[in-house]
Structures are given as C-alpha cells and as structure tokens.
Write a structure and sequence with these properties.
The complex is a heterodimer of chains A (288) and B (158).
Chain A (H helix, E strand, L loop, with lengths): L1 E2 L1 H9 L6 E8 L6 E9 L2 E5 L9 E4 L3 E5 L7 E6 L7 E4 L3 H12 L3 H22 L28 H8 L27 H4 L64 H22 L1
Chain B lengths: L1 E2 L1 H8 L5 E8 L8 E8 L2 E5 L8 E4 L3 E7 L2 E6 L2 E9 L3 H12 L3 H19 L23 H4 L5
Classes of the chains: A alpha+beta (288), B alpha+beta (158).
GO cellular component, one term (chain B): cytosol
Protein name (chain B): Pleckstrin homology domain-containing family J member 1
Pfam family, one (chain B): PH
Chain lengths: 288, 158
C-alpha cells in the first residue's frame, strides 16, 4: 500500500511542535536486540530516528487504534504497543527510567486522533452547557437550540470553585468515559462535524483555517479580549418548570448588552443570539 | 521510511467520516484520472480500487492544503511540495464542499487548536481548567503555547 512517505517524513521534521521526544530502546523485528532510537511523537504518529539530529526518520508507527501495556521483559522499564488487528506486530519499547516509561505510556495511550476528538467533543459540550446556563450567546452560540441542558448552578464568583458544576458534568449521560485508560476509545459514529461552526466564527484569527489549509502554522499565541463579553441578563422563569436560571453574572468589564433590559426571557435571548450568529456565519462563509 | 502497513490497512477498514467514489488523479505529470473509492478515516485519506479490500494507498492529512480547483474539483497538496497536487473530482458542487470541509477538519493539528480554544474559553468563563479532572492538563499537546502552561500562570483572564 502506498503512503505519501515524503510528506509524512516532512511532518516528522517540520517545525510543528512535537508532543513528546526522547530516547527509547526499540526491539528489532528480526534482529531481536534492542536498539536505541530517538523518538518523536506528533499527534498519532510515532517517528523514530537513528540519531537525535537525524534528517529523516527511519520509520514511523501509526498509533491509531493501539493499546499500550507494560510488559514482562528482561529489559527494564519495558512497555509494548499493541494493535487489535490480525497478525499485528507488537512493538516493544524500553525507557531509561521508571518515570520516563510512565510518561511515555501515558502519552502514547492518549495519542490517538479518536481520543483527541473525544476530548474536544467533551469540552465543546461543556462550553455549550456553560453558555446555555449563563444565558449568553456571545460569539459561540450554536444555532441549534434543541440541544439545551438547563443546569442550575450556584456560583459565588468567577474564581470560586463550585462543587455542583463538576458533578453535573460527570453525570451527564453523553459524557464519554474519560478515565485514564491505556487504550484509546473507539470513535463515536455521530461525529459529522468535529467542530461547531463556532470556532470558525470567532473573530480571533487563530481559529480560521485558511480556506485551503490545515495546520499551516503552529498553534499560535492567542490574545484573548476579555472585555468583549457583555454582561449576562438573567432570564425569566423557565418554560418547563425547571430550576430558576442563574442570577446575573459579570464576566467582563461592562454590563452593556445589545439586548434591551426588557428582553428578560431567556429563550428569546438565546434565539436572538442564535440568529445573529447564523447571520454572521453566513456572511463569513460568503466572504470566503 | 518504514511504517506499520498492516495496521494502517486495518485502520482503512474502520468506520469513516466520509466515503465516496471520486475521480482521482495523482500529482505526477502524466497521471490520469481514475475512479477510486475514497475514504476518510481519522487523519488519513485512503483510496481503493472499487471492490478491493486493501487500499491502493493512503495520504496522511497533516501539513496539507486543501483547495477548490473548480466547482466540482478539489485538490490536496502537501506543504513540503506545494506544487504536487492530488486532484479529486466530485459529482456535485455540494459534495465537493463537503469533502473540502471534512478534510480540513481531519487533521490532528486542527483538532488541537479547537481543544485549546475550548479549554481557554471554559477557563475564562469558569476559572477552572476543564482538563484537570481528567488528569491531562499537563500534556504538551494541550498547551496553548508549545510547552508553556497557560493555566498555572495566566490569571489575566480572571
């Protein structure tokens, strides 16, 4: 099977930041001795070089779908990368120390695209929940009001930790299992869109994938403009008799809201923001 | 460069984001358009001869540029050699748009940026790092700037 090897090798050495690097011993396939190699983990690709400043990797292990296990071995600090498919090869690796081994096992077991996708989805869901509860559409309101979680939370301030918030997140039935497991969970089938339109709409330049590109620049520094947030207007009594909405809360410097103080009803506010976002999105898409 | 081909073939059989028969043309001069079953799985684009089990090939979709070539055609080029384009002919403008959109989102780097965004935003709104409860706040891949820790030091948003 062909692979765009030259570009893959380029990915290994280009200036996108690696997720982890270091020396590991790798057991050879035919020659069963352990060879010391320089490993570079980027995303779900584990490259290995003959030397630390090698220009090109000798090889790459695609980590998608793998499990990482500690293994019984004469070699100290050994672990294995295993795959679920028939006649798959087991990659035996060994680190220099217990700490290094643990660090690599942790990094490799979370290296899959699937895992990253789950984390992103979970955070996306959390953000939506937070925004829904606070009643602010802002720049990130999703244009789909059906999926709304009315969560009643009491918060005493921006920086105080609220015990109720974490329990409500973990009890959500849609939250995937996020405990540290060695095997990356399998993909969710319903992921038509990895990212809500919200990330493209954000005025901050970082999130705009250029119409052509992906990953052209390394993750850039983000300058967050906290003062663009409007104050939160509390909603009226909820329609379905759920718990009362959260009291007004100041996120940013100003309490100014584009919505008149008369718009007390939460669902109206939500729809209003949703429509505004839809329009902005349509405009943005047209300008592309 | 060696790679774990068996496992990659196995990956090509996994459920995909998108799969369709498209006209595909390789990047070399003289390459002609061939009908291929094109399948997007995580950050790989596999292409099969119709009715064959094993893919003809795979393209890792990192460090690539996806472009609209005309109403129904898109191209993929890799940043190390931007002139070499793989061309894909779709059956409709709609389908072409869908593929472009999906491929852009299919890179690990793209997802990482989104994760960082959500993480930062949630932290800004709640004062809490959402990754802490999963024990992954320290992982390099989730940092805002490569290597540096946003959560520990940055209190300007609070």
């Amino acid at each position: 099977m062909k692979l765009n090897e030259r570009s893959v090798a380029h990915y290994a050495t280009c200036d996108s930041p690696p997720d982890k690097t270091g020396f590991l011993f790798k057991k050879g396939e035919r020659n069963t001795a352990y060879h010391r190699r320089w490993f570079v983990l980027k995303g779900n690709m584990l490259f290995y070089f003959e030397e630390r400043d090698g220009r090109e990797p000798i090889g790459v292990i695609v980590l998608e779908g793998c499990t990482v296990e500690l293994c019984e071995s004469a070699e100290e600090f050994a672990f294995a990368v295993k795959f679920d498919c028939a006649k798959a090869r087991v990659y035996k690796l060994a680190a220099d120390s217990q700490a290094a081994m643990e660090s690599w096992v942790k990094a490799l077991s979370r290296a899959s695209f699937d895992y990253m996708r789950l984390v992103v989805k979970e955070l996306e869901r959390q953000l939506e929940e937070i925004q829904d509860a606070a009643g602010a559409g802002g720049q990130q309101a999703r244009p789909k009001p059906q999926r709304r979680h009315q969560v009643a939370r009491s918060r005493s301030g921006a920086s105080s930790s609220s015990s109720s918030s974490s329990s409500s997140l973990s009890s959500s039935s849609s939250a995937p299992s996020m405990t540290a497991v060695c095997s990356a969970p399998r993909s969710l089938q319903d992921e038509a869109q990895l990212v809500s339109g919200g990330s493209r709409e954000n005025g901050v330049a970082w999130s705009k994938a250029p119409a052509g590109g992906s990953a052209e620049a390394a993750p850039s520094c983000v300058s967050w403009d906290g003062s663009t947030d409007s104050g939160i207007v509390s909603g009226c009594g909820p329609d379905e008799g759920r718990a009362p909405p959260v009291p007004p809360r100041r996120f940013g410097a100003s309490l100014e809201s584009p919505v008149s103080p008369d718009t007390g009803c939460f669902s109206k506010l939500h729809d209003w923001y949703g429509r505004e976002v839809e329009e902005l999105r349509a405009q943005w898409l047209q300008s592309q | 460069m060696r790679f774990n081909e068996k496992e990659l073939v196995c990956l090509s059989r996994q459920p995909s984001e998108m799969a369709a028969e498209l006209g595909m043309r390789g990047p070399k001069k003289g390459d002609v358009v061939k009908r291929r079953l094109v399948k997007l799985v995580v950050n790989f684009l596999f292409y099969f001869r119709t009715d064959e089990e094993e893919p003809v090939g795979a393209l890792l979709l990192e460090q690539c540029r996806v472009e609209r070539e005309d109403t129904q055609t898109f191209s993929i080029a890799f940043l190390d050699d931007a002139e070499r384009k793989y061309l894909f002919e779709c059956d409709s403008e709609e389908q072409c748009k869908e593929w472009i959109d999906s491929i852009i989102k299919a890179s690990y780097e793209f997802m990482r940026r989104n994760l960082i965004f959500y993480r930062t935003e949630i932290h800004r709104l709640t004062g809490k790092d959402p990754l802490e409860q999963y024990g992954i706040s320290d992982e390099t891949r989730f940092q805002v700037n490569s290597g540096s820790q946003l959560m520990a030091r940055d209190t300007s948003s609070l």
